[in-house]
Specification:
It is a single chain. With 230 residues, the chain is an alpha+beta fold. The protein has two domains: 77 residues, Glutaredoxin (3-Layer(aba) Sandwich); 131 residues, Up-down Bundle (Glutathione S-transferase Yfyf (Class Pi), Chain A, domain 2), CATH 1.20.1050. It has ten helices and four strands. Helix 1 links the parallel strand 1 and strand 2. The N and C termini lie far apart (38 Å). Pfam families: GST_C_7, GST_N_3. It comes from Jiella pelagia. This is Glutathione S-transferase family protein.
Length: 230
């Protein structure tokens, strides 16, 4: 049965940008599963699959619906155990939870301070209104003020990546010699910034940048198929 992945897009339906959707896209490729992408803007999500979820990604596998990127990864692992493992065992599943927690509490907020206004600018008008209202309420300031000092925020952000960098100078992936879902979790965050914002902050020689380029090339260049924002 066909697998459908509902993904978040802006004006250009061919440019999915959600970090959580990118995690699942690479997880599906890791498992060697064919899927079709279905694009949705922010304001379209509540109408998907009869209002099944307020968030994407949503995976539809036959008659089964699953929302939330980690829940989808666990579904794929448990439903297709004969295909390459996303976690490398139960210990890896638990450690991936830590990686997700760190990424969403350290990397995502920092990237939002760099790219929030650019994300707004790639959206359709109805989604722009939704995004501005919801994010400015959450941030307590305008999008413009939220990113006004982004150039000064780059160095502290790069320093915060030292735990990641220390691992990646010793091995090609967080998963070791080959990637696991933990890699896709962190990759999704950087891909979010790459696809939605032209602001560049990772030096090319940084081990994190080298790892990210390595991830872009995975699965016949799945990540690189969507060009960087310009």
């Amino acid at each position: 049965m066909a697998i459908t992945l509902y993904e978040l897009v802006g004006r250009d339906a061919a440019r999915p940008f959600s970090p959580h959707c990118w995690k699942v896209r690479l997880a599906l490729r890791h498992k060697g599963l064919d899927f079709q992408s279905a694009a949705a803007g922010f304001t379209e999500i509540p109408g998907l699959e009869g209002g099944y979820s307020k968030i994407v990604p949503i995976l539809k596998d036959g008659e089964t619906l699953v929302a939330d990127s980690f829940a989808i990864a666990e579904y794929l692992e448990d439903t297709y155990p004969d295909r390459p493992s996303l976690f490398g065992g139960e210990g890896g599943r638990t450690l991936s939870r830590f990686v997700e927690s760190w990424t969403q509490r350290t990397v995502h907020p920092a990237l939002a301070r760099l790219a929030a206004l650019d994300i707004h600018d790639i959206l359709d008008a109805p989604d722009q209104a939704y995004f501005r209202e919801s994010r400015e309420k959450a941030f307590g300031t305008t999008l413009e003020d939220f990113v006004a000092d982004r150039a000064e925020r780059v160095e502290p952000f790069l320093k915060s990546l030292e735990p990641l960098r220390a691992i990646l100078v010793k091995q090609p992936f967080l998963g070791g010699e080959s990637p696991l879902f933990a890699d896709y979790i962190v990759f999704g965050a950087f891909q979010w910034a790459r696809v939605s914002s032209p602001f560049r902050f990772l030096p090319a020689e940084d081990p994190v940048s080298v790892w990210f380029e390595r991830c872009l090339s995975l699965y016949e260049g799945e990540g690189a198929k969507v060009p960087a924002a310009a």
